[in-house]
Design brief:
This protein has a domain at 15-58 and 92-121. Helices cover 8% and strands 35% of the residues. The chain has helices at residues 51-54, 105-110; strands spanning 15-18, 24-28, 43-49, 59-68, 82-93, 116-121.
């Protein structure tokens, strides 16, 4: 019997969010991140930007964490059981010299010519 494990490629789930005008699209490998007390997993993603739209502007990533302490179905009448915590802001493009990192597997897989901006936040 032939070994077919190498011939089958396992897919990766990717989460996509686009701006209303479609000029900026963000792809993330996961949406939920856990604080391990000593570290938090880095946010691996790709930002695709229309080069005409970007011109000489910079792209920043902002991380907002939500602490949920109740079920979503209990959110009624404008009363929510969550607390938003502002965590981090980092320049993604142009990437500062002191934070140059090699592209991740997700970034290489999504790369789209000169539209690729890249992006990885957190410890790398």
């Amino acid at each position: 019997m032939a070994d077919t494990s190498n011939s089958k490629r396992q897919g990766t789930r990717v989460f996509k969010k686009s701006s209303p005008n479609g000029k900026i699209t963000v792809y993330l490998g996961k949406r939920d991140f856990v604080d391990h007390i000593t570290h938090v997993d880095p946010i691996d993603g790709v930002v695709l930007v229309d080069p005409e739209y970007l011109r000489d502007r910079k792209v920043y990533g902002h991380v907002l964490a939500a602490f949920r302490y109740g079920r979503e179905d209990l959110d009624v009448l404008g009363l929510t059981f969550r607390k938003d915590l502002y965590l981090a802001s980092e320049q993604i493009f142009p990437q500062p010299e002191n934070s140059k990192r090699p592209p991740t597997r997700l970034q290489v897989g999504i790369k789209d010519g000169d539209r690729w901006v890249g992006g990885l936040m957190g410890p790398g």
